[in-house]
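Before surveying the methods themselves, we first show a specimen of the format, giving the amino acid sequence and backbone structure tokens:

:::
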Amino acid sequence: MKTCVYLSYKGLGANLLHLVYCHEIAKKYGPITIITLCNNLEAALKDDPLIKKVVFINKYHKRLIDFLKLKKFLNTFNFDQIFIFYPSLRIYLASILSNIKKVHSYPIFKKKNLHLITAAKIFTEKSLGINNCPTETKFFVRKDKIEKINQNFDNNTFKIVIGAGSSGPTTR
């Protein structure tokens, strides 16, 4: 089953915050494709076996009329299902019109006071029919990369691989 997750966030921190939910979806349906507005997410997820592909788009997301262009773009992938982690009428309409069989989306008109972690957790649990979805993201880094780092850096100091953050009040 070709599964897509649409992350409508530009920042690396907000996208990585949703990675745990992407992993839950991939555990159920196999490796997924992520469509995102974040231009460096692909590099951060390069070693992740649960992510088939990361597609960066920097258009089709500003105006309501762009849903027709987004529909055409989504058609090129032939997804069976999509999980939209944002309450967007434009993305929802584009997904429905692009013949994706199952479209899972946040409630469309509930953007006000959206708590990213709580909303994503509830959405994932409801969409997958699971309880107690984890909220802590885990990164995959190939073993040979870790060994190379250990060889080139002093083992008595801290090594920060990714220092991503998010500036929203519900995601700090």
Notes: The first strand starts at residue 3 and ends at 7. The chain has a mean pLDDT of 87.
